[in-house]
Amino acid sequence: MSSSRKSQQDRPVLTSSWVIDTRELGRRPGSSRPVRRTAQAEHAIGLEGVIAVPAGAEVELDLLLESVVEGVLVSGTAAGTLVGECSRCLDPITEEVDVDITELFAYPDSTTDETTDDDEVSRLVDDLVDLEPVVRDAVVLAVPHVPLCEPDCAGLCAECGGKWAEVGPDHRHETIDPRWAALQERFQQGSGQ
Predict the structure, then answer these.
(1) What whole-number distance in Å separates Cα of residue 107 and Cα of residue 68?
(2) Residue 182 to residues 173, 175, 193, Cα–Cα distance (Å)
(3) DSSP for residue 72
(4) In 3D, which of 119, 73, 128, 106 has the Cα closest to residue 2?
């Protein structure tokens, strides 16, 4: 899809910390430029409600922009702090995430732009690249879908909600089969007489 077919709402906003202007790089294949910056997460990045870089948190970008025949190749890393809770014991979790980024942003009207579907390759819009979707996708693939505070977290007791790590291995709850409850009640009444 050429840039002329892009809607105005798809244009990246240059004031966003995720957007990089590539005009200084030029279009001569082989030219490159390092970019280091801190971007602010506008929305949670990861698995929202499970574990993610929270909205408003910082993401450190350490990238290399390279001009290639078909566009701008962006490679490097993005690092941030994930916040969530253990899926077994519900304790808060904070851990670092560091993802590798390698993404081609195709020039408008290039062969890559003309021969690929919208969701197959990123595109430059007015010489701007928006890194937020690329970083978001990489983080989603890197985060654990079932985050744990410890690999061997035992979780919570299903009866009382106590953490197994705190209540200990001897923790038990007496449960009587409802079919025997009346008989137990009768024995308790008989022993009290």
Answers:
(1) 10
(2) 19, 13, 17
(3) E
(4) 106
pTM, full prediction: 0.74
The model's pLDDT over 28-44, given as tens digits with 9 standing for 90+, comes to: 888 999 999 999 999 99
Tokens 């449960």, residue? 175
- For 55, the token pair is 């909205």
Instruction: Judge whether residue 72 has pLDDT over 50.
Output: yes
Tokens of 67: 């001009």
Tens digits of residue pLDDT in 136-155: 999 999 998 899 998 888 88
> Cα–Cα distances in Å, from 104 out to 40, 43, 74, 127, 129?
22, 24, 6, 13, 10
Whole-number Cα distances in Å, 14 to 17, 19, 102, 129, 138: 8, 6, 21, 9, 22
CB atoms within 10 A of CB 153: 17
Q: For residue 76, what are the β-bridge partners?
A: 63, 101
Report the DSSP pairing between strands 122-123 and 92-106: parallel
Q: How far is CA 98 from CA 32, 50, 62, 82, 146, in A?
A: 23, 18, 11, 10, 18
189 SS3 class? helix
What percentage of the chain reaches a pLDDT higher than 90?
43
Residue 124: its pLDDT value, please? 81
Give the Cα separation of 126 and 11 in Å (integer).
8
Burial class (CB in 10 A: 0-12, 13-18, 19+), 125: middle
